[in-house]
Structure formats: C-alpha cells, structure tokens
Amino acid sequence: MPDLDSPQRQVPDALMLTGFWYRALPADQVQRNQLHQAMLLEIPLVIGRDRQKQPFALRDACPHRGMPLSCGRFDGENVECSYHGWQFDAHDGQCELIPSLTADQSLKVDRIYAGSYPCEEQDGFIWVYIPDPGPPGAGFSAREEAPEPAPLIEKFSEKYKLAYLTADMPVSIDHGIIGLMDPAHGPFVHQAWWWRSRHSIHEKKKNFEPIPNGFRMSAHTPSSNSAPYKLLRLYAAADSITTTIDFVLPNLRREIIRAGKYWFSSLTTVTPITRNQCRIDVVAAWNIFGWMPFGPDLLKFVFAKFVEQDRHTMELQAEGLKHNPHLMLIDDADRPAKWYFQLKAAHLEAKRTGTEMKHPMPGPVTLKWRS
Length: 371
Ligand code: FES
Ligand SMILES: [Fe+2]
Hints:
This protein is an alpha+beta fold. The two termini are 25 Å apart. It is built from five helices and 21 strands. Bound molecules: FE2/S2 (inorganic) cluster and fe (ii) ion.
C-alpha cells in the first residue's frame, strides 16, 4: 500500500448503495390504517400498516399520473389514489380497481403495479429493502423480493429492554458514516464535565480484522471513556468486560458489550435520505439496569447528548462542505474511513463484474491513535 504515510485525497461520491435493507421509520410512529411519508435514497415512500398491523411500503407516486399515494385513502387493505380513484393492494402494489373503466373495456387492471418494496418490522423500526434499479421500461411487474431478512440486533437473554434514538444529519451518507466511525473527534466534540475533557486524550491501540462486507474491532476491554462501559463498571469487574464493534456495508455499526450474564447490544445505522442528507438511528437492547430505576433513562440521556453533539458538528461541517473543499484521510485515525471507501468500491466492482467481492483488508491490522 503506497498511501500509508501520506495523507490521501478524499472525494466522497455520496453514492447510495442499493440492494440493501434500510431503516425507514420508528415502528411506534406508524399506526394501523394510517399513511406516512418517508424518503430513502431519494425515493419517496408511503408507509403504513394494514388491519393485521403488518407494515407495507409503496413508492409514493401513483403509476397513473404520479399523484402521491400518501394523499389518498387507506381502508386497511387497499390504497386509493386521490386523483382518479385507482386502488392498489398495499403490500404488493397490484392494481385492484380503475373506476373509470366501463364493463366492455378489457384493460387488464391486475397487470398494473404501484412500486412496492419488501417491508419488515424489526427491533422497533420499519425496515424497507431498496432493490437495484430495474431495467428501463420496467414498471408493469411485481416487485423483487429481498434475498435475506432485515438485520437483527443480537440478544443474549430472553428478557431485555429496547430503546431508540434518531437524528437528522445534513450531510451525505459518506460523511455521516465516516463521522460515525471516526475515533479522533471524541475529545473535541464529546466534551462534558461529567464525561471527559480534551485533556483526557491518550494513546490507544486497537486490533481490527476483516469480516464479510466489513471489519471488526476485535474483542477487547472497552475504552475507559465509552458510555456503556462506565455504567457496566457498576456491575462487573473491569477485566471481565469485553466489547466488539463491527462495521458492515452498507451502513451498520454493531456494538456488543458483555460482562458475565449482563450484556448491552446496539445497532446503529446511518441511512441515506437524499444526496446531502442522512439520518442516524441508534437502537440499543440490554439486560442490565433492571434494579436501577433511572438506568435506561441515564443511558438514553448520555446517548442523546452524544448524538446531538455529532448532529451539531455535522451541521457546521455542512457549511464548510458547501463549496467543495479538498479533503484528506490520514493514518491511522482515518484508516477505518479508508476501509469504508475501499469496501464500497470493492462491493460495486464485484457487482459490476458479477464476481465475488475482493476484501480490501489482507488480514488483521493494529491501529494506533490518540483520543
Ligand atoms: S393519478 Fe392516481 S389514479 Fe390517476
Ligand atoms: Fe461522535
């Protein structure tokens, strides 16, 4: 690798990856028999739940004349467009009725489809699968099914609690993701008197290894200034606590902390909304703090504070990015960001050539930085 010691010019392309599941909306925001708008990868969606509470996702544009279907009516089964009253099955988008047709007109209504997407509820979120764009001219066919179910949060006991946090970030998916995995901003962005100051900065050394579609910060005793770690210290001996952090394409960050029978597991996603906008959703599950009445609230408070600090930082960064400045990535602190760009490129290349993805990491790597 020739670029290890010199800063590397970085041109984020903000390309949004199709062929993956994305979080669309918190599940508790979507009630039965209602229609909600959402946007994923610049695709407007209408999301709802049928009578049986099953969620569905349609493209928010009528295939007749483009009217947003979210302006229409929903009876718990079919969505009716507000312009000419065409009706579509909420789940597969198949046209059920065109009211203007006379008895002797033979147009095959059931060959018409509103765009529809595989949709699942998982760990407090409605997930939508965004397939690769079809060939031009398509649009009269049923949808593509997802090759695998939506991602799950790993859990290690029957009983657990679940909570989520969400924040809009006014930057592209690439900046959202490299901001999420950036180890060097902590002492500057996440300062608080009860937490840490920029003077607590110290050298860190972490081992990373390749995993399918991503990389893992190998199991280790967590950094003494990570949030769940400080709380877990109340429950278990410091050296019994281990954590692993994975990043997996397109946008998943999993963190698992285990301390004896106690565990904390989170799945954070950065979701592309438009080219210049993404959203961060943190969902955490845990079986700790059972006896501590304010435990979950405390954790949520800490996370909310962090996410707000990141959001505010990215809002300021978006100002700086408006005029396309040159950017760079340095070793070792920006190496995870380099891996992200390399993984993305390798994924696209594998898709283009129809071959297996070549992982950009040759094997385990140790990184050092101060934070
Ligand atoms: S635009 Fe929807 S029915 Fe005509
Ligand atoms: Fe941060």
